[in-house]
Amino acid sequence: MAFSTIKSDQLSIYMGQSAETTDFIVDCLTDWWQNNQSDYTELEELVIDLDGGPATRSNRTQFIKRIIELSQRIGLIIRLIYYPPYHSKYNPIERCWAALEHYWNGAILDSVETAIYWASNMTWKGIQPILHLVEITYEKGVKVLPDELKQYLPEWQRSETLPKWDITIIPF
């Protein structure tokens, strides 16, 4: 998982040794925000570009719950913008992955240490990324039951014109 912002060219890369789950992604977003919120004191809305992968799909109940809880905790509107299938090339963060793949140029990533070495020594827009190793083991297949999910849905507002691709979370 990687984060880059419009305001800064600093890239943060989170590498995990577990499955890429909703909980992994929202925990990484939470950590990134805790480390960077002082740079965004005037921010009223956090816009996140997503590729529609299985852990962040807009119908995934655990993702809905966790991202709304994040919005409530940080007190910001969060807007989720999904790129349609086969359009990830338009997602700006994909360019950083291309730069990383070009940098390691077919190196054999046979250990976590090797992957961290290559990722930490690349540059993105002339700056080395900040690398985070997440050592938590995340459970796959976590779901929120419909009765529990009801309490979160008022904050989950789908766009009228692009309901599948544009969601706004307004914390109450």
The 3D shape can be described as globular
Strand content: 15-25%
Q: How many β-strand runs? A: 7
Radius of gyration, in Å, reads 17 Å
Count the helices. How many? 5
How would a textbook summarize the main sheet? 4 strands, mixed
Spans where pLDDT lies below 50 across 5 or more residues: none
Question: What does the model show?
Answer:
The protein has 172 residues and is of the alpha/beta class. It has one domain. The protein has five helices and seven strands. The protein has helices at 22-36, 61-74, 92-104, 112-121, 146-149, and strands at residues 2-3, 12-16, 45-50, 77-82, 130-134, 156-158, 166-169. Strands 3-4-7-6 form a four-stranded mixed beta sheet, with helices on one face. Strands 1-2-5 form a three-stranded mixed beta sheet, sandwiched between helices. Strand 1 (2-3) and strand 2 (12-16) form a beta hairpin. The mean pLDDT is 90.
Short account of what is shown:
The chain is α/β, with parallel strands linked by helices.
